[in-house]
Structure formats: structure tokens, C-alpha cells
Amino acid sequence: MLIGVISDTHDNVEEVQRAVELFTDRGIDTVIHCGDVIAPPVVPFFDGLDVHAVLGNNDGELDGLESAFRDLSPASKLHGRFAALTLDGLDVAALHGEDLEEVERLAATGEYDLVCHGHHHEAVERSVGEATVLNPGALFQAVPDEEHSVAIVDTDDGAIEFVNVAD
Predict the structure, then answer these.
(1) What are phi and psi of 47, to 5 degrees?
(2) N-to-C CA span, the chain
(3) Do 138 and 121 touch, CB atoms closer than 8 A?
(4) For a tag site, which of 27, 35, 87, 151 has the least CB within 10 Å?
């Protein structure tokens, strides 16, 4: 199974559309969004995908965001500030990740195979104990286009691919 991981979309509709197109073209139907969607109008662009999202420090209009995610698919959900998921046998933690020490602690517990976070606007993959810590990068307009990235996780072999969506 392939899982798309995205974060810090900050209402960047053009890049969200490109990311969704990329995910769809690659046969991805499950996406983890690590926060900072910002406002409900961007959520419908994820239509056709099962999206598990967490709140970031800049997310507002919570009732509207929750409603928008419910409208995507029965499996889509805005989980609050943290999500613990099992996807194709992979135990995943998702959070926005403002506090990198919190990210480290989660990864070090041994409870998760993958800890996904955003906030820092740079694509990073690293190991903490047996866990992989993943920041897919950002689609935030203040980040240069050449750094607008998402990640694709292959649950079969654990491979992670970063893809620039501005290309």
C-alpha cells in the first residue's frame, strides 16, 4: 500500500491540486495531513481520497474543518492535535510537531513504526530507535517552489519517496 503524507498546505490551492493529482496518478487513496490546512475551503480539493488530518498551530474555523473532512469520505477524519493510526499493518503517529522533543519522545516509545509531522517546512526522514520520523515538507507559499514537497510511504518495504509538487 502507498500512503501519501502532506503538511503545511496553508490554503495553497494550486499546490494541493498538484499533490492530489500526484497521489491519484500513483494509485494512492490514503493520505495523512500533518496540519496547517488553515481553512475549510481547501479541504474539498482532497475529494476522492481518505484523509487523516491533525490540527496545526495555524488551523482555524475548527467546526468548518471538521465538517469539510467529514464530507470527503466516510474514512476521512480530522483527528484533533494527534492521531494514532494503523494502516496496512503500519503503526503511525501523526501530529503537527511544533515541539521536536515531543516528536522524539513519540518515536522513542517503540509504539510506532512511523511518526509523521510537519510545522518546520522541510522534508526530513530519519530514524529514532526502530521508528522512522517523517516530515514531508511543506506547500506553504513562503517556502520556495523548488522545496514544495510531499512524501509517499510504501508499507510493503518501508521505502519513503519525497516528491516535489511544483515540477
Answers:
(1) -55, 140
(2) 24
(3) yes
(4) 27
